[in-house]
Amino acid sequence: MSLTSLTLTDFRSYAGARLEMTSGPVVLHGPNGAGKTNLLEAISLLTPGKGLRSAAAAEMGRREPGEATGRAWAVMVELDDETRLGTGVQTAGAARRIVRIDGETAQPGRLLDYLRPVWATPEQDRLFSDARADRLKFFDRLVFAADPDHAASVSIYEKALRERLRLLNDAQDGREADPVWLDALELRLGEAGARAAIARVAALHALQAAIDSRSDRPFPQADLGLDGPAEQMAEAGAEEDEIAAAIREGLAKARARDGAAGRSLFGPHRTDLTALHREKQRPAAEGSSGEQKALVLNLILAQITRLSDHAGTVAVAGAARPVLLLDEAPAHLDERRRAALFDEIVALDLQAFMTGTERDLFAGLEGRAQFVRVAEGTLETD
Hints:
Layout: E1 3-11, E2 14-20, E3 26-29, H1 36-44, E4 74-79, E5 84-88, E6 98-101, E7 104-105, E8 116-120, H2 132-146, H3 148-172, H4 179-213, E9 222-227, H5 229-235, H6 240-253, H7 255-261, E10 272-277, E11 282-283, H8 289-307, E12 322-327, H9 335-347, E13 351-356, E14 370-375, E15 378-381
Parallel strand pairs: 3-13, 3-14, 8-12, 12-13
Antiparallel strand pairs: 1-2, 1-4, 4-5, 5-6, 6-7, 9-10, 10-11, 14-15
Helix pairs in contact: 2-3, 2-4, 3-4, 3-7, 4-5, 4-6, 4-8
């Protein structure tokens, strides 16, 4: 399915806006601060999670000068089968957004039946040299785009991890941590952590296969890895219950250390995504921001390939086709890689939304994309 329209109400810089769109690439061009990224963020919210800015719902409502909190806001898209997907908050400053499908309230996970947004932002230009937690968050989103159950596993794990740490911190204040409750939490952590580790390894193999299948791309190839004990056990073929037991044992041994440190120093939340620049045979973290950007784009294209029925590779049965969101992606690519990116988007028959300050950056898409000028909260197709 493809998006046919996007409607915004009091969202970010938009009091109200509507964009009718084609099924192929859409180029959003205009000056800095015009609201281009806001449009990408709006689309990214039509999936479980916080969207491409990782912002809280209360931050997204439009504010007039002097207003202490943002207004109630809404985002709605229509699909080519006339399905309507919407999200937003009903009261100003509300912390939790609601999701509606054809006007009926729905669980956020249902959105994955219709849209699977995949995005790259300028913040990811140094993904491999930035914080480990950011890389894992990025990778987990790639995993659950194809395996929605992975999001539930990670959520269960993170909630139990917070509860365990609270008990350990209380014990540091002179109160004894309840060993029975700790055992129960670590049992939950083992089960959810093992499922997450197995899903990560399966996704890693699928992404690596997609990267290797298109070695003709003028993007640097990466050899991917997961640096974490649970994932290494999964890679070696260990069963889920074996991995869960190892996680439980490691957490039990780490109680005193975690309590003293005030943070959890063992577990699948400490896993790192690694990448080796294949041609140069050196870690991606040692590459320039331009090289890292190209590696991330190739990883994004691999994700698109494995999700897309049109690509004919690792498609997900019954899953919605992906929608690609690229914020300022072409700006730091050389002409050859920029042309290759555009050709790949067209060849995959993708609905892709791309932003840039200069229309000329997208000259390779003339006649193959819809061009929309964004200026001061207005949208004009040219």
